[in-house]
Amino acid sequence: MNSIEIRELTKAYGAHRAVDGLTFDVLPGRVTGFLGPNGAGKSTTMRLLLGLDRPTSGTATIGGRRYVDLPDPLHRVGALLDAQSAHGGRTARDHLRILSAAGRIPPGRVDEVLEQAGIASAAGRRIKSFSLGMRQRLGIAAALLGDPGVLLLDEPTNGLDPEGIIWIRELMRGLAAEGRTVLVSSHLMSETAALADHLIVLGNGKLLADTSMEEFIDARSTPGVRLRTSDPRRLRAALARDGFDLTDAGEGRWTVEGIQAEQLGTLAAREGIPVLELADERASLEQAYLDLTADHTQFTATR
Amino acid sequence: MRAALPTAPTLHSEWIKIRSLRGTLGGLIAVFLVTAGIQALTAAAIGRSEEGSMGDDPLFAAYYGLSFGQIAAMVFGAGAVSCEFHNGALRTSLAAVPNRTRFYLSKIATVGVLALLVGQVTGLATFVAGQEFMGRYALELGDPGTYRAVVGSGLYLTLMALFAAGLTAWLRSGTVVLSLLIPFVVMVSFVVGEAAGGAAQFLPDRAGQLVLHARMPGDLGPWTGLGVMALWAGAAVLGGWLAVRRRDA
Question: How distant is the Cα of A267 from the closest Cα of chain B, in angstroms?
Fold first, then answer.
């Protein structure tokens, strides 16, 4: 009922396809990160989902219904598209009152979400006097207004200070834990890595990946371990018997590719080799992402 | 079609939009202040000097201030729509009211009702305040055509606001609409209109102002003139509706 269904979605501007035959689902109960370089089609997909732009073909629905057909859209979907989606001449409270009136939301919610977003003290100020971070918080307050089951947030951490970034991370995790559907686009890898359970990756309007965060990283990195030992000579010999190679990483550290910490630990214990430090080494989301998009660029270049 | 009509919540939302911006609320108040104020000041200054000092047609002269007040009506109508084109305000509005016809009709209805209320009060106040200073040349309510002019001036201001609102939705810019309309009613229509009759009498402002005349300068009657103006406003509102429905936000 709160899932998002994108089916064969295409949006063409003349010959350019901003979104090209996208098909994916966004499921409730987890934070889904929406990744892709600038111009990949993330914002366009969100606008199509909200019925702000018309698709050239295909459908984008929420619980099986188009956004324009939802009887109480603000109760179902909360969206932060960009921080500039408010008239600068209005006060923050008036901006939210307009939405609450149109969406049949009790007026008391306005002050609740202003409080929740941490801008209650600026409620009576005109939006044009707001910093980017405060506008972002106002946009998030507007998205939360109808207590919706689906949240679409386009670059929500833009302009937020570190405290704000932690706040929104906790907020989104909490919303997903309550069983809501949370779709968050971002170009900040470290942010998305700290936030998302699932990933949708776009490139040139096409779907590049739709997978869990873990699978995404594991599929794009060779497993390996990082360790310190007091007897690298014996360890090298022991590893060589099993076909592994010990590489010097400098400063007394060593790496072994293609093995996991569990396996190496057992091997070292069997041989009685002291291991002082041992950890699995995984690629970061950033490495995995760059690896994927590099593949994609090659693919498009050689086609 | 029923599904696209304005609802109490969408009308309420549109009313908050208008009253929460200085420009639109100010434009609405200015319709009253400018029309009645200029009328009273002008009448006080020259109204008693000689017969016909405010113009040959005493009824039309009773609405001298309307030439200025109509600009405020345009500013109000254009401003009420153009505020949606500031930043991405339209996207937020359409996220709240995704049915575009309902969104647009709610806005047009709110602009129309507010302009009509303020227009009617203005029409009466302008007549009363202006004639107060006319001494023995004053008209009285009940004289031929006076009730028609009082009601008609309010309708004129309403149609002018709707005309500007529709054009703004169509052209997506209040600045463009006002920089077209204001010179038009201030100069073009004045100059062209002096050659009464012909095609000029069908211009929206010339046709609409016939409802304020005691003697008809051309072929159109007072109410048919206002009807011609209503067609202009209706066409602008229709054009705006097509644009709002069709375009990506």
Answer: 60
